[in-house]
């Protein structure tokens, strides 16, 4: 790239989990709200699906992403938040999902210079599109399509 060209930049958001961080485009996150205890699911669901809560007259599934990866989600602390995220497939029954966060997210500028692929060995998980290092921070990029498909299997 010549010095006269502007570097492509995407505004992103790092969503802090108990044991890591998710990286999403800022446009994928509608709002971050204070955590409130979700309603218990009426049917048997996996442990990563914590239940549902109401946001702007929509019942959203609340997920613990770490549990999807087989990791410990820890206890919900006083600083816990929920990232309300858009789904991608235009499903009227599931327009949003909630992701449990340890604390408030951080905005980041994602540029070619700021992001590199993770070089370590780790088994690939179907809910993770990629693992990267952004500005020195290890982060997972979730596969929102796969997550939405997995959620559609459970009536909420």
TrEMBL record:
Position of the signal peptide: none
InterPro entries hit by this protein: CheW-like_dom_sf (IPR036061), CheW-lke_dom (IPR002545)
Record-annotated CheW-like domain positions: 9-153
Pfam families: CheW
PROSITE patterns to which the protein is assigned, alphabetical: CHEW (PS50851)
GO-annotated biological processes: chemotaxis; signal transduction
SMART domains: CheW
Official protein name in the record: Chemotaxis protein
Species: Sedimenticola selenatireducens
